[in-house]
Amino acid sequence: MNRITFPLNLRMQGPTVGDLQDALQFLVRKTFDGVTPAAYRPLDPPNSPSRQELKELVGILRAERVQTSYGEATKQLVFFFQLQNGLGDNLDGVVEEKTAARLNDILRLLDAPEEPAVDEFTVKGVVTQANGEPAVGMEVRAFDR
User: Fold this and answer.
1) Tens of pLDDT along 98-115?
2) Is the CA virtual torsion 112, 105, 49, 82 positive or negative?
3) pLDDT over 90, % of the chain
């Protein structure tokens, strides 16, 4: 998993946002495995975040991840992380230096898988349907010949 960088905030797009979203998904998954110390502590309703709320946010996060777009689900998961990790309630889901450092510390403690260093190419673009609308949720594969 790549290191989380900063600043990251609402409406940003790109690979660094994707890195954050991968980390958030990993941390929520670890929260529910019941084995490792949790980065999130689900609370009983009406308090937030509840288990159900975290699951719903991760579902929305997957759609944001497809577009590597820092949307509302990403912001809300970052905000809950900030609150529950003592970073303050005034950061409003923006990843700044303290939040990035804490995320990276926890990822390291949880032995988050690191991306292997390989020679690879980056292919960028937008896949659209015939009517010009974005093709959300499509899997695209590129091969080098």
Assistant:
1) 999 999 999 999 888 876
2) negative
3) 66
Q: pLDDT by residue (tens digit) across 34-61?
A: 766 678 999 999 999 999 999 999 999 9
What whole-number distance in Å separates Cα of residue 81 and Cα of residue 90?
Answer: 13
Separation between Cα atoms, residue 2 and residue 92, nearest integer Å: 23
* Token output for 34: 């019941």
C-alpha neighbours within 13 Å on the C-beta side of residue 44? 0
- Rounded distance, CA 94 to CA 70, Å? 10
Distance CA 35, CA 19 (A): 24
Tokens of 28: 């929520």
